[in-house]
Amino acid sequence: MKKENPNAINRRQFLTRASVLSAAVVLPRYVMGCKALAAPGDQITLGFIGTGKQAMGLQDSFLKTGEVRILAAADVYEAKLHRFTEKLPGCDMYSDFRRILDRKDINAVVIATPDHWHAAIAVMAAKAGKDIYCEKPLSLTIKEGRAMVKAAREHKRVFQTGSMQRSWAEFRQAVELVRNGYIGEIKTVRVNVGPPPIPYNLPQEPMPAGLNWDMWLGPNVKPQVFNHNLAPGLTDDFWAHWRDYREFGGGGMTDWGAHMFDIAQWGLDMDGSGPVLITPPDKDHKFLTYRYANGITMTHEPEGNQGVTFVGTKGDIHVVRGKLETNPGSLLNQTIGDNEKHVYRSDDHYKDFLQAIRKRTKPVADVEIGHRTATVCNLGNIAYELNRPLKWDPAKEVFLDDDEANKLTGREMKKEWNVL
């Protein structure tokens, strides 16, 4: 019998305390236990921090690689934690993620919490010597993203951002067509994602059993009332709406923007930089418009399906999940030659992370890339909030001659979790 970890939550407590339990399921062979497919020495050990809807998908994706054992999980919502571990006999459960960071037998952590927690957890994980997979958007603010990069570099951590479109063929093909000049000189990029966030305004609801709301709020200084739209229960079949509110997320600009602006940055070869001018809609600009130092513009256009369109002097390329459209149409099946420009190739975002851990190399969506993409999204949100053009220095990561805008590159955080 396995010796119980004294810091772990007892499974029997969940059976009596959780208000909703998942139905029994038939498990595929690869999830029939943490040690099913390979000897422990051949596998990478993971701890999950955050066990909601996104984490359930990530659990499946990592287990399908056959290269990991999930030894522990942490969440502030007991029912979700129990659901997550039902498929993982022998995995420990914690209400405090720091207990995972304390464990020497865990190689890496998967962070799938709301955005306002990302930076604090990631910085602490890096200091604890853990490699990190963190969901997109990487950070709630620009300064928090830079703190994550600094911690990863200082502690020599492998850090993969959950921008999995970089491991999908249609997006890589679009980027390589652009990089190799198949549509000529790029003039503009159109990005179709949702709107900026709004201040939190939901009414208070009764607190569900087994939810530590103070810990859910975590780094946020200002208290906020509970509403199930922020932290859905197991029977709520929707994605949590914390993404819509400024205190916790960045709206559609960062939620889908962290995917689509990421592809735009990749295509423009701007993974280590960003725009220099951000102009919100006005009489001369129908849409919020970014301008890069090389003169290329990029617009945020909330209408239409989530996607990216590169417009060049010889044609255009439109890419969404599962579909690539080109003008001229002959480019659709264009083979990129061996002597042409190629970007990092990853066919599996999760195996790519595990390979980088073993080789101690940068993965396809390294922390710097994730930070720069999140920065583009956050720059747009700041311009929307202040409603005036903003000049940005992507090297120094400051607004030029604008103290009010620079204050919005960070936020006040509780002392215990402050990484700024």
From TrEMBL:
Domain of life of the native organism: Bacteria
Ranges of residues in domain Gfo/Idh/MocA-like oxidoreductase bacterial type C-terminal: 201-418
Matches recorded under InterPro entries: Gfo/Idh/MocA-like_OxRdtase_N, Gfo/Idh/MocA_oxidrdct_glycsds, Gfo/Idh/MocA_OxRdtase_bact_C, NAD(P)-bd_dom_sf, TAT_signal
Domain Gfo/Idh/MocA-like oxidoreductase N-terminal as annotated: residue spans: 46-162
Coiled-coil parts of chain: none
Name by which UniProt lists this protein: Gfo/Idh/MocA family oxidoreductase
Gene Ontology MF annotations: nucleotide binding
Pfam families: GFO_IDH_MocA, GFO_IDH_MocA_C2
Annotated source species: Mucilaginibacter ginsenosidivorans
